[in-house]
Design brief:
Shape: globular
CATH class of the largest domain: Alpha Beta
CATH topology of the largest domain: 2-enoyl-CoA Hydratase, Chain A, domain 1
CATH superfamily of the largest domain: 2-enoyl-CoA Hydratase, Chain A, domain 1
Number of domains: 2
Radius of gyration: 18 Å
Number of helices: 11
Helix content: 40-55%
């Protein structure tokens, strides 16, 4: 079995990173495997929601830098594989939830932030640890941080590799909820169950509209017209509309 283990809960695919002995740090082949698992779940008609989580005391410690050392002569090639995973997560149509346990640092934190929703345990510690290692942000972190917490706070987290714990994640706007550690996955699955009751077409279109974040109200309305026509064409919502 690979590092990324999939199990299903009702209409939810749970993708669990299981490399606990390395705090779920990801090698290039692990990023490839996660990208493939995301694509498979997104194309699975039985799946409505995707939950990404870790094991033991870690969500993910980011990239396994020791394993990447052999690729230093061709950094663009290995970054392309890492970022293929990031691009895949950013483009899956189905809603994604990060169930964050333990630590989530570097690309591991940005993996969580790239999900549509994020639920963290009270003992979770996160950091944009890149500058502590002499590296720059990656895995989409430069965009994700600014989108979620604004430019100046994003710079604070990135410049100082600030460590945030538990409730601080909520205060900074990095996650949607903080719960007891033993309720992280169960709460994520409760949210997933609620999302699974929605029209998958309307939910995917709503996600796309928000992700594209039109620059003006008029552009937003133009995009919403197209999306609403597509949503209304889904025969599965006919009974829902008559109940309003």
């Amino acid at each position: 079995m690979g590092v990324v283990e999939r199990s299903d809960h009702c209409a939810t695919a749970i993708l669990r990173i299981n490399r606990a002995q390395k705090k779920n740090a990801l090698r290039l082949e692990d990023f490839d495997e996660l990208a493939d698992a995301l694509t498979t779940a997104d194309h699975d008609h039985a799946v409505r929601v995707i939950v990404v989580t870790g094991t033991a005391d870690s969500f993910s410690a980011g990239a396994d830098l020791k394993s990447l050392a052999n690729y230093e002569q061709n950094p663009l090639a290995h970054l392309a594989r890492v970022h293929r995973c990031a691009r895949t997560l950013a483009t899956v149509a189905k809603p994604t939830i990060a169930a964050i346990n333990g630590i989530a640092v570097g690309a591991g934190l940005n993996l969580a932030l790239a999900c549509d929703l994020a639920i963290a345990g009270r003992s979770v510690m996160v950091s944009e640890i890149f500058l502590d290692r002499g590296l720059t942000l990656d895995y989409g972190g430069s965009a994700l941080l600014v989108q979620r917490i604004g430019l100046h706070r994003a710079k604070e987290l990135a410049f100082f590799a600030t460590r945030l714990v538990g409730e601080e994640l909520l205060a900074w706007g990095l996650v949607n909820a903080v719960v007891d550690d033993d309720r992280v996955l169960s709460t994520s699955l409760e949210w997933a169950d609620r999302l699974a009751q929605r029209s998958p077409t309307a939910l995917a279109l709503t996600k796309s509209l928000l992700n594209r974040a039109a620059a003006s109200l008029t552009q937003a309305i133009d995009l919403e017209v197209i999306a609403q026509v597509a949503a209304l064409s889904d025969p599965s919502i006919a009974s829902t509309l008559t109940n309003f």
